[in-house]
């Protein structure tokens, strides 16, 4: 889905995001996702229509750039919103503590 079209949709709601992600846990495992958490405005249930969905992932295997992009696009298509995805180790130091305080475990 075009990123610009996603911006006109309703704000992503935490419970709906969690429901969709959990419903597709098996597919995400097949793509190499070991665990998934959300943080930020969606996790706090404060998202606006232009909010992205911030995800922290842990991988079960090396996935490379192509695999990383494939997972992010899968999530964007599933959630109908832009996704910002990374690992806990990749969080910038000044963002680490606020992000960790917001974490909501998905699986």
Secondary structure class reads alpha+beta
| Sheet of most strands | 4 strands, mixed
> What are the segments in which pLDDT stays under 50 over at least 5 consecutive residues?
none
Order of helices and strands: HHHEEHEHE
Strand content: 15-25%
Distance between the termini: 25 Å
* Count of separate DSSP helical elements: 5
How many β-strand stretches? 4
What's the overall geometry?
globular
Output the radius of gyration: 13 Å
What does this structure look like?
The chain has helices spanning 3-6, 14-23, 25-30, 64-79, 93-102; strands at 33-39, 53-59, 83-86, 104-105. The protein is an alpha+beta fold and 107 residues long. A 4-stranded mixed β-sheet has the order 3-2-1-4, sandwiched between helices. Strand 2, helix 4 (64-79) and strand 3 form a beta-alpha-beta unit. The longest helix has 16 residues, at 64-79. The chain is globular. The two termini are 25 Å apart. The mean pLDDT is 92.
Brief descriptors of the model:
107 residues, alpha+beta, four-stranded mixed β-sheet, 19% strand, globular
Short description:
By secondary structure, the chain is an alpha+beta fold. The chain has helices at 3-6, 14-23, 25-30, 64-79, 93-102; strands spanning 33-39, 53-59, 83-86, 104-105. Helix content is 43%, strand content 19%.
List the helices and strands and how they pair.
Layout: H1 3-6, H2 14-23, H3 25-30, E1 33-39, E2 53-59, H4 64-79, E3 83-86, H5 93-102, E4 104-105
Parallel strand pairs: 2-3
Antiparallel strand pairs: 1-2, 1-4
